[in-house]
Here is the input.
Amino acid sequence: MAKIEPRGRKVKILATIGPSCSDADTLRQLFISGADAFRFNMSHGEHHQHAENFRTVRALEKEFNRPIAVLCDLQGPKLRVGTFADDKAVIPHGAEFTLDRDETPGDATRVCLPHPELFGLLEKGQRLLINDGKIRLRVKEADENHILCKAEVGGVISNRKGVNVPDAEIPIPALTAKDKKDLAFAVEQGADWIALSFVQRPEDLREARELMGNRGALCAKIEKPQAVARIDEIIAEADGIMVARGDLGVELAPEEVPPLQKKIVNATRTVGKPVIVATQMLESMIESPAPTRAEVSDVANAVYDGADAVMLSAETAAGQWPEESVIMMDSIARQVERDEAYRMRVRLLEVKADETVADALSHACMTIADTLHLEAIAVFTWSGSTARRVTRERPSVPVLVLTPSVAAARRISLLWGAHPVATRDITSFEEMVGKAKRMALRHGFGQAGAQVVVVAGVPFGVSGATNLLHVVKLDGDELKNHKS
Here is the structure.
């Protein structure tokens, strides 16, 4: 069995699989270079290709004996214009342009909008953004069959370009027919996380959760102003949050996105759920072996803010430098976390512990780690809830998460600071102490003589019963016992 050392950083790296890294050797190299989890973009690729990548990731898990999270990102209800007689047209600045229900190919004055739910919904003064906001239309009048607009920003428009409607909540379900097929496939393959695109309201998450049937965790992608307006409700409904800055940056003014990113990260961290910062983090590395200084600062700021994970999208999926992108992101994260100010910055957010024994012990872990200069915190958990509580406090040491649930171990691998290990359950206090020591030594968290704090629940094997905290000193002889 191959061995890979602990990452030496707490923030996780989520890498997207695509044509540039879909072969087994490249995926293996991305994992070795620092990718902790992999994103499958269901907008692209066929199911048989995704299935092969699933097999590759699970083989890596087995080879390196380390749980790896798979996140399947559903396409969602993407709005698009129809087609053009010449495949494209030019809309002059200031010109009138009509979106209608006529399927006849369009021209410079009109095009079909094959989404009947938009007609009769839009009102005068609202905006329509086409092709990631490159074309900006303002509604002059609208009825059941036509939407007459003025082109505030014109330009080239071509077949099936995407449409964003930032000023209205669209009465369409978050799951399309394609999404439902992709979701069923992902669940069958054993996806650990499902990411739901274009969430507008907490109700959008409930249909997906019902279809998932308690298999996998649900991540809400925040990319619409309507979701931002109800962010606390959506966080409460989801298992995790992704700040999807691509579409969010189209529908909002660019200067609005950075403070919103911080707001969403903080709100999600406060409740102890993982939050991922995504899209265009090292965008220039799609074509260049080195990022811009602005991109480096962008990644660094997400790390300073205490995000659980940072994501690479086209950089690894379709770029020319997938491995270098992972190495660069890993290097930035390590450098930030070595900064003396990092611990203070990442704890600027006040996380108020709930009045429960589990929350009190989780908070105590942080202060004990600071006071005694521990090597790690060892957490015994079944569902992962204790691990979320402990990592929410952003302790100064890694969190070794020991669980008998492989599924929980995989989901936990996206948590800040967590190093999950799937292992047999414990049945006694003595077994807990011995296993905590053994696993800490085996997985590289301290040497003989170092101290580790252990968190568990009595009676053992009962979910939600965290009530025990114990500080132990590692003994080199423990490693000789190879029972898992």
